[in-house]
C-alpha cells in the first residue's frame, strides 16, 4: 500500500519507475508490442489523473500535502531506487516522449540499449567500489542524475586512479562536490601536474582541485570556496599568499612572537592548541583577509595534525623560536590550568571596589596543569614525555615540510627585552614588514606571559566616578583602540612607566585631568600602592610553587632512565640547530649542564 510519508514509495510511484517496471514485466511475459504500448498509455493516463486529483485534494485540505521528499525518514534509502533498471528505463522512455517531435522515438531503441549497458556497468561499478555503496545514502538526491549522466567519465576516473587510494577516498568522501564540479575536477585529475606533484610520489593528501587555478581569478577560487571548511575537506593547500610560515614551539615564547608579528602587520595567530581543522580555517581566513599573513603550524604532528603540514605549498621560509630545552621543560611543568579558575572568581578579582582591603580574596588560587594541584610537582616531569609532541618535534616538522634550506631560527635570547626590537627590525627588513612603532616599544620590552600570577588581569578599580585599570601593555594592545583610550598613570604612583616587568596602571583619557585634581587622589593612590604590594606578595607566592631548571637537573641526575629518554627526545629535536646554529647551544647553559651530566653518568651515547 502506498505511503506518502515513505520516500521509497514516493519514488516508486514516480511515472518513470512505473513505466520502466511495465517494460521489464512485459519483456518477462513476452507480450506483443501493441499490448505494451496500450499498458504504457494507460499508466500515463492514470498517473496524470492521480496528480490532478492530488492537486484538487490539497486545495481542499492543504494540511494533508505530502511532505518534501528530503523530510521523509527514509530519504537516503530512496537514492538507491534511481539506480534500479526500472527507473533508468522509465526516464529514457519519458525523455523520448518529451522530444517526440525532435526525433526522440527514432533514437529510443538505441537509448534503451545504452541504458541496459549502463545498468550493467553501474552494477560492476558498485561492486568494485564498496565504499560508494556505504556513501550512497549520503549523496544528494538530485546528484544521482549527474552520476548517471557522467557515468562513463566517473567510472574512467576511478579506474584510472584505482592504484592511488588517497584520491579515491577524497573523491568518495566528497562525492556530491565531485559530481557538481566534475568537468573542472576531471581535467585536474587527468593532468600531468597532478600526476607529477601528487600521484607519482603517493602524496597522502592529494587535492581535488588544481591549487594553481584556485589562486587565479577563476570561477572556482579560494575566495569563492568560503571560510575553509570546503578547502579542508578537499585537501586544498592554503592560499599561497605568504612569505613564511611560523612554527609554534611550546614554552618557547611563540605566543609572544605571534603578538610581536601582529604589531608589525602580520597575522599569524592560529592558536596551536586548537584542533587541526580550526587551525587550518584560521590560517586560511587570515591569508584571504589580511594584507600580510603567515600560517602558524602547531608542534603536534600526529593524526589529523599531520594533514596541516601537507597543506602548505610553494616556496616559503620557516620561522621558529628555539629555547634551551631544559627551560622548555621548566615552563611546561609550571604551566597553569587556567580553566580551573571559575568565571565567577575571575569576575570578582577583576572588579574591585576602591578601598576593599580584603586582599587575600582579591587574587585567584592557581592550579597547575600537570600536577592538578596548587603546587608544581617535580615528579610530574615524566608526564612531559607522554606529551613530547608538544615540545620536541622541531626537526620532524622541518622534514615534513621538506624545506631545510630556508629555516630562520630565532634564539630565545633574541626576544628578551634587550634584543627584541632589533630582532623585529631584522624580520621586518627581511620580509618587507612594518617596523615596530615607537609606542610599541613598551609592549615589546615587557613580559607577555601571564602565567606567573597575572591571569586575573586586567583589574578594574572602581572609585566612585573614576575607573582605574591595573593591566599590562600586552593586554592593552589586544584592544582595538589600544592605548589611545587611556593615559598611563603608573609614574604618578611609582615614579616609573612600568612596574614588575609588565604591569601598568591606566585611567581613561577623559577622566585623567579630573582624577589628578580630585581631593581623594592621595587616598586612591595609597590604596593602589597597597594593592600592588599585596599583588607582589601573591606573585612571589606563586613563584615559590614553581620548579626551576636547577630542580629539573637535580631530579634528572637521580633518574637515569628518564634522563636518557629526555636526552633522546631533545637531541632529535635540536639536530638542525646543532648543525646550522651551533652558537645557540653555547647560550643554553642549562642544556650544556645537562649534556655534561649525561656524558659524566652515561658516557658518550
| Low-confidence runs of at least 5 consecutive residues | none
Give the beta-strand count.
Answer: 9
The percent range for strand residues is 5-15%
Instruction: Please compute the radius of gyration using only Cα atoms.
Output: 34 Å
Mean of all residue-level pLDDT scores:
87
Query: Helical content, roughly?
Result: 40-55%
Number of helices: 33
Main beta sheet strand tally, sense and closure: 5 strands, mixed
Given helix and strand content, the structural type is: alpha/beta
Can you describe what's shown?
By secondary structure, this protein is α/β, with parallel strands linked by helices. It contains 33 helices and nine strands. A five-stranded mixed β-sheet has the order 4-6-7-9-8. A four-stranded parallel β-sheet has the order 2-1-3-5, with helices on both faces. A hairpin with a 2-residue loop joins strand 6 (459-463) and strand 7. The model has no long low-confidence stretch (mean pLDDT 87).
Amino acid at each position: 500500500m502506498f505511503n506518502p510519508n515513505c520516500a521509497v514509495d514516493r519514488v516508486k510511484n514516480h511515472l518513470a519507475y512505473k513505466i520502466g517496471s511495465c517494460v521489464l514485466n512485459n519483456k518477462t511475459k513476452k507480450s506483443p508490442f501493441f499490448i505494451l504500448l496500450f499498458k504504457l498509455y494507460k499508466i500515463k493516463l492514470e498517473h496524470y489523473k492521480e496528480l490532478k486529483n492530488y492537486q484538487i485534494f490539497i486545495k481542499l485540505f492543504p494540511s494533508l500535502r505530502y511532505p518534501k521528499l528530503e523530510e521523509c525518514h527514509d530519504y537516503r534509502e530512496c537514492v538507491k531506487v534511481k539506480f534500479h533498471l526500472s527507473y533508468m528505463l522509465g526516464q529514457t522512455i519519458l525523455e523520448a516522449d518529451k522530444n517526440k517531435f525532435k526525433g526522440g522515438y527514432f533514437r529510443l531503441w538505441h537509448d534503451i540499449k545504452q541504458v541496459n549497458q549502463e545498468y550493467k556497468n553501474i552494477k560492476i561499478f558498485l561492486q568494485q567500489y564498496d565504499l560508494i555503496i556505504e556513501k550512497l545514502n549520503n549523496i544528494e538526491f538530485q546528484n544521482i542524475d549527474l552520476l548517471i549522466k557522467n557515468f562513463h567519465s566517473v567510472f574512467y576516473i576511478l579506474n584510472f586512479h584505482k592504484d592511488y587510494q588517497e584520491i579515491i577516498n577524497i573523491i568518495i568522501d566528497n562525492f556530491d562536490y565531485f559530481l557538481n564540479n566534475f568537468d573542472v575536477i576531471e581535467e585536474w585529475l587527468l593532468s600531468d601536474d597532478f600526476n607529477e606533484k601528487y600521484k607519482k610520489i603517493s602524496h597522502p593528501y592529494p587535492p581535488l582541485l588544481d591549487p594553481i587555478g584556485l589562486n587565479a581569478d577563476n570561477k572556482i577560487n579560494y575566495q569563492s570556496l568560503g571560510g575553509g571548511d570546503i578547502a579542508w575537506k578537499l585537501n586544498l593547500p592554503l592560499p599561497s599568499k605568504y612569505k613564511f610560515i611560523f612554527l609554534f614551539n611550546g614554552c618557547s615564547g611563540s605566543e609572544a612572537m605571534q603578538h610581536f608579528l601582529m604589531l608589525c602587520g602580520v597575522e599569524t595567530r592560529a592558536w596551536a592548541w586548537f584542533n587541526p581543522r580550526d587551525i587550518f580555517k584560521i590560517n586560511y581566513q587570515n591569508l584571504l583577509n589580511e594584507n600580510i599573513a603567515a600560517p602558524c603550524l602547531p608542534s603536534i604532528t600526529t593524526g589529523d595534525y599531520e594533514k596541516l603540514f601537507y597543506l602548505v605549498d610553494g616556496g616559503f621560509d620557516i620561522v621558529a623560536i628555539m629555547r634551551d630545552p631544559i627551560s622548555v621543560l621548566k615552563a611546561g611543568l609550571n604551566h597553569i590550568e587556567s580553566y580551573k579558575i571559575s568565571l565567577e572568581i575571575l569576575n570578582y578579582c577583576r572588579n574591585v571596589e576602591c578601598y576593599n582591603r580584603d586582599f587575600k580574596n582579591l587574587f585567584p588560587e592557581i592550579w597547575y596543569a600537570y600536577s592538578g594541584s596548587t603546587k608544581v610537582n617535580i615528579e610530574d616531569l615524566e608526564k612531559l614525555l607522554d606529551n613530547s609532541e608538544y615540545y620536541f618535534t622541531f626537526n620532524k616538522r622541518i622534514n615534513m615540510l621538506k624545506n631545510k634550506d630556508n629555516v630562520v631560527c630565532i634564539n630565545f635570547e633574541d626576544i628578551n627585552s634587550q634584543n627584541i626590537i632589533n630582532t623585529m627590525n631584522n624580520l621586518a627588513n627581511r620580509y618587507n614588514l612594518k617596523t615596530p612603532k615607537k609606542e610599541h616599544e613598551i609592549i615589546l620590552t615587557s613580559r607577555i606571559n601571564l602565567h606567573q600570577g597575572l591571569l586575573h588581569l586586567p583589574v578594574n578599580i572602581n572609585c566612585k566616578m573614576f575607573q582605574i585599570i591595573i593591566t599590562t601593555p600586552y593586554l592593552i594592545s589586544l584592544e582595538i583602540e589600544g592605548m589611545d583610550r587611556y593615559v598611563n598613570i603608573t609614574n604618578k604612583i611609582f615614579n616609573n612607566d612600568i612596574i614588575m616587568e609588565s604591569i601598568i596602571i591606566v585611567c581613561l583619557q577623559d577622566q585623567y585631568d579630573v582624577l589628578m585634581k580630585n581631593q581623594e587622589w592621595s587616598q586612591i593612590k595609597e590604596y593602589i600602592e597597597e594593592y600592588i604590594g599585596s599583588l607582589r606578595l601573591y606573585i612571589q607566592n606563586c613563584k615559590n610553587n614553581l620548579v626551576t631548571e636547577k630542580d629539573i637537573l637535580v631530579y634528572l641526575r637521580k633518574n637515569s632512565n628518564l634522563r636518557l629518554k629526555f636526552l633522546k627526545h631533545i637531541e632529535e629535536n635540536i639536530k638542525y640547530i646543532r648543525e646550522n646554529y651551533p652558537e645557540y647551544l653555547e647560550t643554553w647553559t642549562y642544556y650544556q649542564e645537562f649534556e655534561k651530566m649525561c656524558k659524566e653518568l652515561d658516557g658518550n651515547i
